[in-house]
Amino acid sequence: MTDWTAPDAIDCSDERLFGTLLDRAETREKGHYFEFFDEGDEIHHDPGLRLSQHGNEEWMGQTLNHDPAYWRPDDARERGFDEPPAHPDYLLACVMGVTVEDLSEKGGYFLGRTNVAFQRTAYPGTELDVTSTVVDTRTSSSRPNYGIVTWESVGRDRETGEELVSYERTNMIPRREPMAADGSGTVADDSSPADGPELPPTLVTPDGGTFEAFRTALDRARDADAAVAYRHERGRTMDERLVAGLPLATLNTARQHHNRDAMADSPSGDIVAYGDVTRSIALAHARSDEATYRERRFENERFHDFVTLGDTIYGFTRVLDCDSEAGPPTAGAVTFEHVAFNQEHSPVYSGRRTALITRQ
Fold first, then answer.
1. d(CA 150, CA 137)
2. Per-residue pLDDT, 196
């Protein structure tokens, strides 16, 4: 009888023999299939993550979110923070990143996210404790190899137990039977393009980035049968650091962001950008044209198409509402609809955002 524990019992340098060995070997799987999830299940994402100043600044730098309140103490104090806090996009990406291994590492389309709410300011050094609850599971009429799962996830300060951010996320998740090759990572739902309503004859651009500028633009638009909508000049081309590096920095191990071999036969044919990176870049374009004071809330976030290496992300913004009663004396609330689009002018992300904007 052969002693298969002996180092020389198998010659793994023999390519043919090794190939046969691989064919017989079972793969220890990561992540869960659709059948794993039942409504009401609560999942504790054990790794957690510690927010770091380096990670915070790297995220802001790479995604063009250049707001000095998040790295300069004097600017932070002027905005009412005790010290430079973690940027909301970085916090959200970290909370979602640590959920990926348990929820969506098997792959599947990131359909959207809503009810994003920030309960408290988080600072570098905070250790995250993240849990998710299965809110809904259902079949997909157009993709029988997949199911659709919605979770509510909550990120807390591990030391105090205080909630920092919460949201609901919906993904397509592969079914165990029949085995489905993974899709992409971002994007697409089953909805077909709608017959859109007539467009407004005029688009108004705010004359500045303060709360008053947005309110004045809305008043002008209402008097002129127009909409307040405009494009942002900057673009950002997706490179390896953005597509593969930033997701892994937040413990997002979804294969669609870093495994080109596994993604070669997928619908995208290549690795795809993490939806939160695409989103953060689009929001950075918008923030560069406004005087942001605080982020309040995100709703109806949807991912419409693949973003792959070499794609360039641009931004478009529509102003929906101004509320002068919300917020401190120094700021008012503005609700936006933001759209990220690529070099082909195809939308890749859209979502509604309410932020406090500094007054004049």
1. 7
2. 57
Residue 27 has pLDDT above 90, yes or no: no
- What's the burial of 28, exposed, middle or buried (CB within 10 Å: 0-12/13-18/19+)? exposed
First to last CA, the chain: 85
Buried b (16+ CB within 10 A) or exposed e, 141-162: eebebbbbbbbbbbbbbeeeee
Instruction: Write the CB contacts of 248 (distance below 8 Å, at least 6 apart in sequence).
Output: 257, 258
CA-to-CA distance for 190 and 85, rounded, in angstroms?
38
Q: How many CB atoms lie within 10 A of CB 81?
A: 16
Q: How far apart are CA 280 and CA 250, in angstroms?
A: 14
**Residue 44 one-letter amino acid:** H
Strand partners, 166: 117, 154
Beta strand spans in the chain (E):
42-50, 110-118, 127-139, 146-157, 163-174, 202-204, 226-237, 292-303, 312-323, 331-341, 347-358
- Calpha distance 263→272 (Å, rounded): 9
Q: Distance between CA 242 and CA 271 in Å, rounded?
A: 11
Query: What pairing do the DSSP bridges indicate for beta strands 312-323 and 226-237?
Result: antiparallel
**C-beta separation of 155 from 86 below 8 A:** no
What pLDDT is stored for residue 197 in this prediction? 60
Before 178, cis peptide (omega within 30)? yes
Percent helix / strand / coil, the chain, rounded to 5:
25, 35, 40
Strands (E), 219-276: 226-237
pTM: 0.82
Average pLDDT, the chain: 88
| Helices (H) then strands (E): counts for the chain | 10, 11
